[in-house]
Amino acid sequence: MSAPPQSPNSVGNLDPESAVASPDRYARQELLAQIGSAGQRRLAEAKVLVVGAGGLGSPALLYLAAAGVGTLGVVDDDIVDLTNLHRQVLHGEDSIGHPKTASAQLSIARLNSQVRVVRHDTRITRASAPGIVAGYDLVVDGSDNFDTRYAVGRACARARLPHVWASVLQFQAQVSVWWAGRGPCYRCVFPDAPPPGSVASCVEAGVLGSLTGTMGSLQATETLKILLGVGEPLVGRLLLHDALAQTWATLTVRSRPGCPDCDPSPAAVVASERVGGSSGNQQVVTPDWLATRLSDRAIHVVDVRDAAEREALPGPEADGIPLARLRDGTALDPARLGPRDATVVFVCRSGVRSEEARVLAGAAGWRYAVSLEGGALAWSRWVAGGHLPV
């Protein structure tokens, strides 16, 4: 691939030979049979774009730079703020008020002066994304808003670039590798954005800083595996993490025929021109949001626990549909879940199984499937706090 465009915002040594010149820097890494000197050279020649120099982008950029990835593009139009510092470890107190891309550039240079950094001080849009990702071998997506995720996902799917994605909110996280042509793209699994106002952001709901480190590091690992051509990347798999319960779950996700982002058929291409720049990330709703909407006939609440579990820990008023019936597809029917354009809120004990249900429903065409953040546990705490459903 051609190199990213030269600009005044590009610094670093451009010679891959220099990036592997020291016999000591990568010695422990080169001891791995899957890497060796040949693998290290591949990393030195690689060009990776990281979207977002925040909670996820920070650890991803640091570990990719430390590993010797030759060129790192950084996309961000934000300024470092004091509230960023508990999770965005690229930046320090002396970076407050400065562009995140500039701060990232300095941090990377301190860690590995051989890495070339290309700054993109802009926000990616549907129109600009194809030009920005062009020339890179892979895109790491650490963005925090729906429009950017869909713009990046579409550009990567059209260019058939691996799209290493993660999402974190409160104590819940997800990570996957979208790779059109080898597995699903982002829109295959998340066809549309949730209803406006239905999904809390980190600003509204909070986030555990160390969890962004966990997931950003996973993104770096998946990136290195792909660049080196080793192991099995998370293509066709969505990894879910509940940090409070310290549990991990893996969902199988598949390409969606007719997807407007990755299906090359003429009909799908025409359809994509009618699709706006929507988005989809951690699609969750909070107890207070749900409580004010329980009487809304357009919202269908589904509890995926069995009857005994629902009785032991009551949640919001809901229809009981066991998760197993969604897994085997027998309940993925409008007669059970309601119309595919309705909002379906899935509930479980803590939010992990409901997240799996949301993904299954989304892949089956329910465009506005969401999960109750924290599950029945959060609901019971909310009710115990003196709140009553409307």
Task: Please characterize this protein's 3D structure.
This protein has 390 residues and is α/β, with parallel strands linked by helices. The protein has two domains: 10-272, NAD(P)-binding Rossmann-like Domain (Rossmann fold); 284-384, 3-Layer(aba) Sandwich (Oxidized Rhodanese, domain 1). It is 35% helix and 17% strand. The chain is built from 17 helices and 14 strands. The chain has helices spanning 16-19, 27-30, 36-45, 57-67, 100-111, 129-133, 146-159, 186-189, 202-205, 209-228, 266-272, 287-291, 307-312, 323-327, 334-337, 352-363, 375-384; strands spanning 10-11, 47-51, 71-75, 116-120, 138-141, 163-169, 172-178, 237-242, 247-252, 284-285, 299-303, 319-320, 343-347, 368-372. The chain has a nine-stranded mixed sheet with strand order 1-4-3-2-5-6-7-8-9, sandwiched between helices. Strand 3, helix 5 (100-111) and strand 4 form a beta-alpha-beta unit. The radius of gyration is 22 Å and the shape is globular. The N and C termini lie far apart (57 Å).
List low-confidence stretches: 1-8, 266-282
Task: Give the full name of the CATH homologous superfamily of the largest domain.
Answer: NAD(P)-binding Rossmann-like Domain
Gross CATH architecture of the largest domain: 3-Layer(aba) Sandwich
Structural class: alpha/beta
Secondary structure: number of strands: 14
